[in-house]
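Encode chain A's predicted structure.
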Amino acid sequence: MFTSQPPIDDRCTGLSERPSPFIAQTTLSSNAFSRSPITAVGLSELDRAALEEQLAIACAYAVIIDRIAARHALMPSMVAGFCSRRSGWGLDLSPTGADGTRDLEARPCNLSSRQTPLPPDGLGYVRGLMGLDFDRHPLAREPQWRDPESNLDAAFSMIAGYRSRLRRVTTLQGTGLLRASFTAFECGLERVEHAIRQGQDVDSPTPGWCQVAGRGCGQDVVARAAFFQAEGWD
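Encoded structure for chain A:
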């Protein structure tokens, strides 16, 4: 049974960190976003049929998801929810599955890692279950990006790093901290920190074309995680 209540993940809270000058600059209170409600998500918005198809695929990776979640102090539903956003558990890739890619649009070729408009192997820039970007993520330039656990671990290692940074320099907690960390992975850490300094929602850096039913990245991940949690995850 689907619930519109987003899961609250407080597994990453409780660490005592020294104050940072950045905390003094932000106008957010200590509980801002950490327990803020998300607009109820109707099944028509997230497409229950698509999510159920993704659920069947995610269940095949349950052991890997549990390892990734434990390794990075996350709820399994959050891992499943972000992978749902990034690749639809491989359904949004071509070919579908863990070894699929997307984004074949040419880019400027002035990077040390690439001297061609497209990746030299002819595949898309966005790779694997977590959509690792060829230009941004070193693993995306290695054959191991096709391995599901390696792909997820590379992504959530970065997210854990963003979470540690944001926990240290802001007052965000719990689900709000995770929303910011997810958005940092997708939109860039500097943009998220700038939004927080301006007193804006942590999802505000999400461009319009990346929003789902008006939700930014972090909100969308938590909404998807609520679906997986309602189906028995966590």
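The two ends are 15 Å apart (CA to CA).
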